Amino acid sequence: AQGIVGDVLAGKLIDPETGVYAVYDLHDETTGRRFMLRQAIVGEEKVGKATGYWVELEIIPELGYPVVYKTLLTGPASDPANIHRIVMQEGNDNPVEIPVAAAAPGEDDTEPVVRESAGTEQVETEAGTLEAERFVLADPAAPDAKTEVWINDDVRPMGIVRMVSPHGELRLLRFGKGGPDAVSAINKAPVAADAPEARPQTNISVRVEGGAPEPEPEPAP
Questions:
Q1: Which residue from 62, 114, 167, 170 has the least number of CB within 10 angstroms?
Q2: Distance, CA of 69 to CA of 122 (rounded, Å)
Q3: β-pairing, 34-47 with 114-125?
Q4: Are the C-beta atoms of 192 and 96 separated by less than 8 Å?
Q5: How far is residue 176's CA from residue 28's CA, in Å, rounded to a whole number?
Q6: Which band of pLDDT confidence, cut at 50, 70 and 90, is reported for residue 54?
Q7: Would you give the distance in Å from CA 33 to the centre of its chain?
Q8: How far apart are the two ends of the chain, measured CA to CA in Å?
Q9: DSSP reduced 3-state for 150
Q10: Which of the pair, 149 or 6, is modelled with greater confidence?
C-alpha cells in the first residue's frame, strides 16, 4: 500500500483544521490485500512563524496490526521542506520518532507530474453521492502509469473522494469533524529511533512521490 500512501501524502491540505478526518477503503493492486486507511488532522504546532499541522495516517489491514504515521507538515509532503517531524507506531509497540533527514527523499532532476482537470463528475461513495473534480496525473518519466484522483473540498483534510493508480484504488467510506476518527491513535510520547526502549527498526523510510516502493521494516526478533 506504500504507493497509494505516498500519493495521498503528496496532496495539499485543504482549509486545514484540527479534528477533520476521512476514512477510506484501500485496495492494494500489487498484493490483492485490502486495508482501511484513516487520515486526520489531530493537532497543530508552531513551526517558526508558520502553523504546522499534525497529519495522521493509520493503515489498518484485514489481518495483522495497524501502522500509524503522524507527520508535522506545513505543506504537501512531496516537498521535504514541509516535513518537520515524523512519528511512527506499529501495533502496540512504542511510538518512534524518525529523523526527518533519514526519511525525506533526496533531490533529483525528474520532471514534475502533470496535473490536468477532466471536469466534474458524480461519484458514488459509502458517504453518499458527491460531486468531485477529476484530475489526471501523468508522470513524464512513466507516461503509461497515470493516476486519477477525484477531489471535493468538503472532504478534508486533503479532499480525496476516490483515487485510482497503478498501485491500487482508494475509495471514501466516511468523513467529518470530531469523534473517534479525529483522535490520534498514538497515546504515548514517542522515543528516539535509537533509544533502548524503541522497537528495533531497519530500513525506515517514507515514500512521498515517485520512485520504486521502499522496503518495509523487518519484523523484530
A1: 62
A2: 31
A3: unpaired
A4: yes
A5: 25
A6: very high
A7: 17
A8: 24
A9: strand
A10: 149
Give the three-class secondary structure for 5: helix
What are phi and psi for residue 80, nearest 5 degrees? -55, -25
Query: Which triple of cell numbers denotes residue 111?
Result: 520532471
Residues 130, 91: contact at Cβ < 8 Å? no
Average pLDDT over residues 138-144: 73
CB contact set of 167 (below 8 Å; sequence gap of 6+): 1, 2, 3, 4, 7, 28, 29, 30
By the 8 A CB rule, do 193 and 49 touch? no
Query: Is the bond leading into 157 cis (omega within 30 degrees of zero)?
Result: yes
Written as nine digits, the cell of 74 is: 506545513
Backbone angles phi, psi at 114, to 5 degrees: -90, 125
Reduced to 3 states (helix: H, G, I; strand: E, B; else coil), residue 82 is: helix
**C-alpha cell read off for 133:** 473534480
Bigger pLDDT: 57 or 141? 57
**DSSP bridge partners of 96:** 88, 191
Q: What 3-state DSSP class applies to 119?
A: strand
The pLDDT value given to residue 203: 44
pTM of the model: 0.80
CA distance 203 to 190: 19
The x, y and z cell numbers of residue 12, run together, are 495539499
Mean of all residue pLDDT scores within the chain = 83
